Amino acid sequence: MPTLGTPIAPDLISPGSCWKLLNGQNGYARPTEKGLATQAAAGRGFKVAAPLRPEDHGRLHVVLLEDGYPCWLSMDALAGQAVACETWQPCLLSSSDISSRLHAVLEWLKAAAERDNTYLWGGTIGPDLDCSGLVQTAFANAGIWLPRDAYQQERFCQPVAVQPDNIDELRAGDLIFFGTPERCTHVGIHLGEGRYMHSSGIEHGRNGIGIDSLNPQDLHPVASHYRAELRGAGRVMRCHDGSTLP
């Protein structure tokens, strides 16, 4: 394994070696396509999942350490922007510690919404984010790591009963999940009184971060669309340990 702090280089890369990012990076879904799967901000780490191969067109298959998320990073973009590091150790906060940090989560959300932004599939660095990227990044900035994707976040949380006409169990900082009966496809963060903040796309959303409501009296097209797709809600009670989730 390379000495800690050694800059990344092709001849130093081996499966299982860990590296820390000095600059934000795009994480791609496949070695040969442009579509983002996620992003990784400066300071995050990754573990090499497979050796460099010519058929991967200069992309490196990795697993991001803090959320166990697999993706492909560009070796050209990594040049001079990653150094060897130790394996990441999760900080597993108690539920009371998490509760005490929810104010910071909501303050970060408020600041994010005030920046110019548009919806970006795979976005987690900001200012352009997708729905689950907004959620993950808001909590990560308070030291609380969650899984990357909305359906993973739904499974990870403690379920909370919610209906558009019954939000009594919801607390500020709870996650609200939307989608089809078969799968969660969208997530927002409850602000209070049924209002939630989310990053939504162009077709049914606001093309960026905005606030909508579960209240049936809110007839805004975006609020109405997502209210019809409400699946449930969940409370963050634990931190993700960095394992890769299905």
Q: State the low-pLDDT regions, or none.
A: none
Q: Tell me the strand percentage band.
A: 25-35%
Main beta-sheet annotation: 6 strands, antiparallel
Q: Which word captures the global form?
A: elongated
Structural class: alpha+beta
Overall strand count: 13
| Helix and strand run | EEEEEEHEHHHEEEEEHE
Chain-averaged pLDDT: 97
Strand arrangement within the widest β-sheet reads 8-13-9-10-11-12
What is the overall number of helices?
A: 5
Helical content stands at: 10-25%
End-to-end gap:
29 Å
Spatial extent as radius of gyration: 19 Å
Structure description:
Helix content is 20%, strand content 27%. With 246 residues, the protein is of the alpha+beta class. It has a 6-stranded antiparallel sheet. Strands 6-5-4-1-7 form a 5-stranded antiparallel sheet. The protein has a two-stranded antiparallel sheet with strand order 2-3. A hairpin with a 2-residue loop joins strand 10 and strand 11. The model has no long low-confidence stretch (mean pLDDT 97).
Key phrases:
246 residues; alpha+beta; six-stranded antiparallel sheet; five-stranded antiparallel sheet; 5 helices; 27% strand; elongated
Question: Helices and strands in order, then pairings?
Answer:
Elements (H helix, E strand, L loop, with lengths): L17 E4 L3 E4 L7 E5 L4 E4 L10 E6 L5 E5 H4 L3 E3 L10 H20 L16 H10 L9 H7 L1 E3 L14 E5 L4 E9 L2 E6 L7 E6 L7 H8 L1 E6 L11
Antiparallel strand pairs: 1-4, 1-7, 2-3, 4-5, 5-6, 8-13, 9-10, 9-13, 10-11, 11-12
Helix pairs in contact: 2-3
